[in-house]
Amino acid sequence: MPIKTVSFEIRRQASPDAPAVWESFELEWRPGMNVISAMMEIAANPRTRDGRETTPITYDSNCLEEICGSCAMRINGRARMACSALIGNLEQPIKLEPLSKFPLIRDLQVDRSVLFQNLMAVKAWVPIDGTYDLGAGPRVFPQQQEANYPLSNCISCCCCMEVCPQFNESTGFVGAATIAQVKLFNNHPTGRVLKEERLRALAGDGGVQECGYAQNCVEICPKGIPLTNAISDVGREVVVQKAKDWLRG
Amino acid sequence: MAAPRIIVVGGGLAGLSAVIKIAEGGGTVDLFSIVPVKRSHSVCAQGGINAAKNLKGEGDTTDQHFDDTIYGGDFLANQTPVKAMCEAAPSIIDLLDRMGVPFNRTPEGLLDFRRFGGTLYHRTAFAGATTGQQLLYALDEQVRRHEADGKVHKYEGWEFLSAIVDSKRTARGIVAMDLRSMALRAFPADAVILATGGIGAIFGKSTNSVVCTGSAQSAVFQQGVCYANGEFIQVHPTSIPGEDKLRLMSESARGEGGRVWVPRKPGDKRNFKQVPEAERFYFLEEWYPKYGNLVPRDVATRAIHKVVYELGLGLDGQAMVYLDLTHIDKATLNRKLEGILEIYEKFVGDDPREVPMKIFPGMHYTMGGIWVDNDQMTNIPGIFAAGECEYQYHGANRLGANSLVSCIHGGFVAGLNSLKYAKSAPAVEGDGGAAAEVARQAEINKELIDNQGNENPFKLWRELGTTMTEHATVIRYNKGLKQADEKILELLDRYNRVNLSDKSQWANTSFAFARQLYNMLELSRTVVLGAILRDESRGAHYKPDVPERNDEKYLKTTKASFTGDVSGPRFEFEAVDTQYLKPRPRRYDAAK
Amino acid sequence: MATAQQPAAPSVNRGVQPLRAGQGYSFVWRKLHSLSGIVPIGAFLIEHIVSNFEALKGPAAYAEQVRFLNSLPLVRVLEWAFIFLPLIYHGVYGVYLWLRGQSNVVYYPWAGNWMYVAQRYTGLIAFAYIIQHVLRQRFMGVSLPEHPGAAFHKVQVELQNPWMLAVYVIAMLAVCWHFAYGVWLFAAKWGITPGETARRRFGWVCVVGGVFLAVMGLAGIWAFVGPKYQNAPEDVKPAVTLSAPDMPGFSPASRAFLLKADS
């Protein structure tokens, strides 16, 4: 009986200034296989389809449960998490490429630290007085919790930024993920104290105004976060804030 | 005097907790993490975090929490730190709540609590089924705030290689490797806190994340830090077997009413719907009527093992049993468990609201770890440890939802004590040995790159995982453990012939992995040899040849010290602090 | 063999820069662009299409419309301040926005993404069309402000060229599309329709409004090319009474200057 196989085309680049090349791999198929397990297989036996020796593929990964946000890459052209990309659901040969909007490190590994810088720029935190015991937090009704929880599920995978036509080097757009976090923290009873600062931050260059509302973010988000709703809500509040600032001088 | 400079290695719950306390206490922190800290393994914790807040009118107390934890850990844990943790837990929950963790709520706007294994109280606060993620993010946000204030500097994408220990056996900093340029660098510090998580990778496939190799623990172990209770490894009863890893199916599934069963008839090929209630074997409920599906993990895991391997009742003859949620209404499931149900749906393809999940035990948690005193300091002054990488809170078995609280509490304690220590630490002489340590690490790197041979590190790792899973998880026999040690020695020998297919010096992941692999091999010996030495059954450590607990001989902490000799580490037994609760038999089939 | 000293580490590109919190004025420019599309440009568009509808009543009525508009005080100032300058700004800045976007509809062929692309193409068509339309109808040939009676004939001659007719029809559709989706975008981005349901419902409102405008616009074109007023005289005497269509919300003055640019 012939062995069922899986074929891959992987875009390799040894370093940021090295040329990109495509390498083909053919692996034995096993039930339940995903893109990550295929790359683990390649690491254990780094040979291309035509038998040439190569190097293991460099890629980010950690939890493999689609919760840490590490393994985002373009699979058959689309940004998604590699751990939840089951081979059985993909068209072959499976094309793997790094995210295109972030500085390439090597192979499928890119630098997504811009998101963390953005989160810092909008003060995405609750400014508690200190970690000493101050008793229970503010009361939060279940409805509020249910509205905030989805926003808090953002895994920082940056897929929403990758697929956004406005997220690029000329706009320097902040991207949907950060905007959703602004909504989350502005909703929090204590986090609200920084609301005005966050809104003003988001009116800076690269802020919420750069959104073109193509809505790709909400389509691609692996966690189903209501990103377009967040953009609308935050967009309105930024306008109101700027208008207030302008009128009050 | 300049602000104390403290290094924290690891950006999970324990590491971030320590960072926050240090920054708040006036210190400056260099935070090292292989992955961006927001992607640390704590993010995987699902079910919740324990604290005896007693918001359900059940009369729960921190003493009761303490008792459950010690009892659940089969009396192996030192009681003083565990007591302190249980007493701190309610205020930790309050703090997390203030930080904005979206915990589930009652209609009155208070925290909601669910039940978890090993207790009869509703003691587990939860944020859907992604509690670890929510907690990690809350701490990450606070750390980012301190980072914005210049009190914290993050080194994400740097790997800890070793501590810098001076001639007086005092820690003076660390050597780390930039995982992009592969450059080595010494970072001086007044104290070092390791918060580097579990050692799941030693078992090949586990519920742990890719970075949970135990490499950092092993590195300091090889430098003289003691390693305690290495043989205690928690195998979670409900995981989803996968090609790349075992995915966790949270205990909260059972906490919300999930039932574990198999058809009574071996090899029953019927669809689950056609198996009438009378022909279903709810073995946990039958065997442990009081706790039912919420027995502690070691007990549930062994029960599943028995059902599958001794009674031959695995589903369709395979090593799997049902975890059934289909009797619970969908709205409740979505509100309380959506995160984990999605995981199952995505990775298996079935909807657990409609079809019972098929699960099997998988390596999950490392109870043992770096030996620390009650101040979280190791036997090398200046090196502290907190979180899963140390040994002190869970004894022979960890109760579900106790890990998050132990990580945060341990991190706080370590953070505060490291500050205290740093303020009174003797001044460093010269570079404290930094240059020599960098040179030693550079030599190791050079040897590895120059190695000529025919071994692939990933293949060696697979062999290690297979051996460890076979001999050192649920059921242990001395014979098998000895075979495992021989296998590890063989792998250590073959490691000398590792030939990296990638010899470049840029983002070379196989090079970094090969370095971790050596540490994994060294550390796995403490697990296996510790298990051989402990000739009893206690908590997660179960030997069918000696199925009873033996307090007289083994109510002791196993403490391993590295020797560098083929005979393996030197072991000693240390008395356990049992000043509050007298050890009593641990039985979950009756009231305790 | 990599035993030798390693070469200098490669440099990683800088990538997309982080948010410049509190810096720059792009917020004001972006919002002005968005707003100008609604008021005055969008409002003017409606006015223009509705008043072109007047042409269906014949050359004399049309001439009276033009005459009335040009009789307003400060009409040249109003024309520049509320029509030409906003149009130039909206068009030029719009092109600039387009150049800064990076369409990826090939990989992500979703409805919203298609609309994003369509908004850019329809905008470009509209802008190109408007430039030639203003040049040829307002600044070249017979000066209509001085000779309102020549308006109908001038447009009719223009539309006798079938190519030009095609340009007008395509541009009319593009403009209406661009405006209708622009209104939808405005509501979404300014947070007037912050929910999925609100956006879907308002989407239908915009579809209906856009189609209505397009039909009216095409009817206006029909007035010049249809059989009824073929070979209109070069100059007519404006009809005595102004029979403006019912346009709630617009004062006669605003109606006047808005209508004027087209004539």
Task: Produce the secondary structure layout.
The complex is a heterotrimer of chains A (249), B (592) and C (263).
Chain A: E1 5-12, E2 21-28, H1 35-44, E3 72-75, E4 78-81, E5 94-97, E6 104-106, E7 109-110, H2 113-121, H3 142-152, H4 159-162, H5 176-187, H6 195-201, H7 216-220, H8 227-248
Parallel strand pairs in A: 1-5
Antiparallel strand pairs in A: 1-2, 3-4, 3-5, 6-7
Helix pairs in contact in A: 3-5, 5-8
Chain B: E1 5-9, H1 13-24, E2 28-33, E3 49-50, H2 62-72, H3 79-98, E4 113-115, E5 122-125, H4 131-148, E6 152-156, E7 158-165, E8 171-178, E9 184-188, E10 191-194, H5 215-222, E11 227-228, E12 233-241, E13 246-248, H6 252-255, E14 259-263, E15 280-281, H7 283-287, H8 297-310, E16 321-324, H9 330-348, E17 357-366, E18 369-370, E19 383-385, H10 403-424, H11 434-450, H12 457-471, H13 478-495, H14 509-533, H15 551-554, E20 556-561, E21 570-575
Parallel strand pairs in B: 1-2, 1-10, 2-6, 10-19
Antiparallel strand pairs in B: 3-5, 4-5, 7-8, 8-9, 11-18, 11-20, 12-13, 12-17, 14-15, 14-16, 16-17, 20-21
Helix pairs in contact in B: 1-4, 1-10, 2-3, 3-10, 5-14, 12-13, 12-14, 13-14
Chain C: H1 26-38, H2 41-52, H3 59-70, H4 75-100, H5 111-139, H6 151-160, H7 162-189, H8 196-225, H9 252-260
Give an overview of the whole structure.
The complex is a heterotrimer of chains A (249), B (592) and C (263). By secondary structure, chain A is α+β, with helices and mostly antiparallel strands. Chain A has 2 domains: 5-110, Beta-grasp domain (Ubiquitin-like (UB roll), Roll); 113-248, Fumarate Reductase Iron-sulfur Protein, Chain B, domain 2. Chain A contains 8 helices and 7 strands; from the N terminus they run E-E-H-E-E-E-E-E-H-H-H-H-H-H-H. In chain A, strand 1 (5-12) and strand 2 (21-28) form a beta hairpin. The longest helix of chain A is centred in the last third of the chain and has 22 residues, at 227-248. Chain A is elongated. In chain A, 60% of the residues are buried. A 6-stranded antiparallel beta sheet of chain B has the order 13-12-17-16-14-15. In chain B, strands 6-2-1-10-19 form a 5-stranded parallel beta sheet. A 4-stranded antiparallel beta sheet of chain B has the order 18-11-20-21. In chain B, a hairpin with a 4-residue loop joins strand 12 and strand 13. The radius of gyration of chain B is 23 Å and the shape is globular. The mean pLDDT of chain B is 96. Chain B is α+β, with helices and mostly antiparallel strands. The termini of chain B are far apart. With 263 residues, chain C is an all-alpha fold. Helices cover 64% and strands 0% of the residues of chain C. Chain C contains 9 helices and no strands. In chain C, helix 7 runs antiparallel to helix 8. Chains in contact: A-B, A-C, B-C. The interface between A and B is large, with 74 and 71 residues.
